[in-house]
Amino acid sequence: MNLNTINDIAAELFLALRNQQTIAPLTDKFPEININDAYQISRKFLSLREEQGEKIVGKKIGVTSSVVQEMLGVNQPDFGFLTNTMQVLNKSDFSIQGSLIQPRAEAEIAFILKDDLHGPGITKEDVIQATAKILPCFEIVDSRILDWNIKIQDTVADNASCGIFVLGEGECPPDKFSMNTLEVEVHKNGEFLSSGVGSAVQGHPAEAVAWLANTLGEYDIPLLKNEIILSGSLVPLEPAVPGDKFLMELKGVGTCEINFI
Question: What is the pTM of this model?
């Protein structure tokens, strides 16, 4: 895929984000698009946001569950970038209209780094050592692709379907618990919705972060001290509409809450 086409697609995604509109699947319009093309589009899409003043505050991992990977026909996760405008305060009343298109909530474990991580060669143990703390987090994914009709190239190009994220209250050192057995419980509108454990994310959330560090290392992009790293959902994605209230508890760590209006 040539550079002009990559830039044009990135501009189309950027316009869709700004206008809160969807576009047709990229893989329908450009059957030749591959993963590397998609990551180039994602980087250009990000640069357009940076030109508008957004600042990178972290990274996110997506497509971590086997069910989603099977749906998209891949055997590995993907990644996107978090910016300051994506972060929403815990317990906020957040208006979907004008901000999100077709949001879905994910309950995750967020990592806050105290040291840089630059792959390749990063291990789960390296991630734990480089992490200052973990805390509960909601990521609200949102696709600029019509009806979530995505293949892996679509979501990669669309910054891994990033929408917004919420860091909760309560935190602990990364070695206080065995993260693969940490349990999350999610409630929607006051009723139990779902539960999951850390092993749903690549067997261990720190393994997912190690994958991210090593994958980004191939592009000479480090994970940086103080960055926020979202490690992937422990539960199935849940659509959100105005009036929905989501609460998650990461057992022994803390809670996170967001209310949609």
Answer: 0.94
